[in-house]
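The protein record quoted in full:

***
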Amino acid sequence: MLLLDLSKSMLAPLPDSTPGQPERQKIEVARTAVFRILEDAAASSALFGLVTFTETVRVAVPLTEIHRENLPYIENLISLLTPSGRSAIWDALAVGADLLRMGTQGVQGNLVLVTDGWDNASTRFDVQLPNGPPLAPGRLDLVPYMLPNGSRLSLRVIGIGNGDEKDKGVDAARMNYLISQMGVRAGQAGLPAIFSFQEVTTGSQLFAQMVNAFLDVGYEDDRPIEELHPEELARHAANAAKALKEPQQHATVSRINSAQLAASSEPDAAYSETPEIEVDVVTTTGGTTPAYLKERYGPLGEVVEAYMNGQPEVALRLLATAAPVLPPVTRLYWEARIQYSNRAVVEAARALLLAWAEAEKLPAATQPKILRRLALLQARMQSDKETETLVRFIDDTEHRLGGTDPATRERLMDLFAKLMELRGTYQLTRLASEGDLQDAAAKHEEAVDHVFGMLQDARLELSANGPAVEGALDFIEICLAEMR
């Protein structure tokens, strides 16, 4: 569900970050983004709904499956949207939650709120700031209303403008507090949910964030975990286990495992989707070009688009032009990837080596995901199928669960980390002398049994979390069996 602010301030112009491009009204940019989102929804028959709000909240498009046949009617409705009046933001969020409400199962689905102001018109709901006055008589607390027991909700807030001055931009303080309270509520109730707030100040950023909220860039060359036949999954897991059992032949695994351990020692640091580590823009299944790369990733998107269109020389030229605005690790990663696709193996290896060095300068908590991306490329360049399979499954698990269920994702990522730690005790059984072999083997089996126990607990607690989770648990279990 998209919740779109139609207050009068949406008629104001919004500058564009691209030199020479004219300013456009906020509503005009938002409309364009909605048209793009609808195009993609129609291509895949996805569900989409639209709620608009001024001081009145209206359901412009009920949650419905978008098809080519009904697309013109919906697009005509979007083109007629005209801003006026004030903003009933909290009431709009409540209506959006109502449209995703499923009885005793709570609120199920994704809400994307786009607003450029402060709530100044809600009559039913409110969000209370810390140490603020109590809610006015007759007002309901929005947070528990949006997150009843059993809910699985994702809320993404896209705020236009800087809200330091009232009615000159989004109310950042209260939005941040809303997001934090939603997180507290989800944690207390044990709900799988994810919430985020992002400010935008240009037309390009608004378009990209709106499209990004509804579109996803998949991974390259492989089907997702849940689409694999059990025999295929078993074959992949047995193959990946070789990377765990043979450290000398799969040194890249040691490298990413060390990064994972270093990151776990910084519990207060969090992974950030900042441009400094934006290296994991990859292709969709089947090699088709993802939609709106330029809008979503700026100069990097142009590079990736040329690369995926089979124009490596053009991609390298664009990469050189974009170099001043790209972080070193991003630039070097894509240089290595493009050079390798162009069969310039020596140049690719040199760029990848430099990318490793730059990535290791990042804070420890941000390294694992980036180093896995570099490891995947290195494994491909070295025809190391075992490492490639292992890293791909870890990446796929984090990617597919990161946007909807952070608690489940963290549980599975911890299991992957424990699985990789077994490499150490397994290796001791290979290096031990005859007298120490029995002791080393016993310690290894004890470690394996401990991880098996963690796995079984996860199965009991996560059994209803979908086929992607089940596939990841099966993959880990087969790897564990191979490690005995």
Q: What stands out?
A: Residues 117 and 170 are 4 Å apart (CA to CA).
